[in-house]
Amino acid sequence: MAGGRIITTAHHKTMIKENFSLKKYNTFGIDCTAQYFAEFNSVEKLREQLEYAQLSTVIYQLKTFILGGGSNILLTGDVEGLVLKNDIKGIEKVADDANSVFIKAGAGVQWHKLVLYCIQNNFAGMENLSLIPGNVGASPMQNIGAYGVELKDVFYELEAFHLQEKKLVTFSLNDCHFGYRESVFKRQLKNQFVITSVTYRLNKVPHFNTSYGAIEQELQAMGVRELSIQAISQAVINIRSSKLPDPSVIGNAGSFFKNPEIDQQQFEHIKEIYANVVGYALDNGNVKLAAGWLIEQCGWKGYRKGDAGCHVKQALVLVNYGNASGQEIFDLSSEIIASVQRKFEVMLEREVNII
Ligand code: FAD
Ligand code: EPU
Asked: pTM for the full model?
């Protein structure tokens, strides 16, 4: 553990560390520090940390940044202000009815642990979301999604602590304004709330979703005869492990960009020139392009400059081979955006949160 002076309150209940290294707290493995750093494992503790921080003349009025598992951030420099790491644990069944089970989890619970808990108990709905890194508290932030399912499909409600008003507020599905990698917490309410728990609605009887091409293929390869949530979870785990880099081996934050949405006319235009362009029709008539394909066509796949690179197996994932700085990775992402814009006239948007 790196870090300088440790500040404690008179009661030794609150511990705020100064100049704390975040290298192990972000999956890109970027070596930056937090000016101040503290962890909380309950709402009471969070309240205490904030009250203490506001009493201190040094920390008073500094920015607050909420950290989960650090798997969707790129640190481009040292973080000024107070980094608060959410470590609220606990998974409990809070209710059930004829069709559903309601599971409430603390924001600091590892996402995949929650998925495994549901699968072991035959609560269906999260199996396609297996092996996504990060914690429960961040799952609504960008409405995590994979293999044909999004968080909104299993979401019931969440509790969040308002940083200014210091009170808990409950958000329903409608309040969250979920979209593709979007929520109200990334937009209108950015930096205002700390999500402390999320309640999910799971199904007692599974509705299997194997529509995402590669799942059917993988189930066949696994020799699965009877579909189950366990088998789907394992298929998703196998597919993910075969192409996505493991952050404990190579630093990364998953897809660096969103898959862009364009209109049908532009899609046809691109298709005239590049017959094998990869796109999926959306309900609104637009087309979602595979950003990985666009980036690969521009020649970036497997590219490496210093320790910053574009992954060999998945061009949508930028990687840190060891000692890249966040700025170097950011600069690489800017070059990629510019070249995709030049070649296809399509603007890529970063999916990872730039800090
Ligand atoms: P962090 O990176 O710690 O935080 C992300 C953002 O949320 C930050 O802005 C932070 O301030 C905010 N935040 C975190 N916790 C809270 C809280 N409790 N309250 C308020 N704000 C908070 N994502 C997908 O959607 N689908 C995928 O398939 C997928 N695959 C991935 C594969 C790999 C190998 C990796 C490394 C990442 C992948 N991701 C994927 C991205 C990432 O796993 C998710 O975005 C995840 O939800 C981030 O969780 P976290 O706890 O690490 O969040
Ligand atoms: N492709 C290429 N070259 C590449 C990568 C992809 O041509 O280097 C093409 C292939 O044709 C492939 C298609 O793109 O069939 C789609 O690729 P993949 O199935 O790997 O999915 P993706 O669109 O690249 C999205 C999500 C992932 C999620 C997967 C599975 C985004 C931004 N990314 O990736 O989420 O796991 O689908 O559902 O929507 C994340 O958000 O961090 C993430 C990993």
From this structure: 0.96
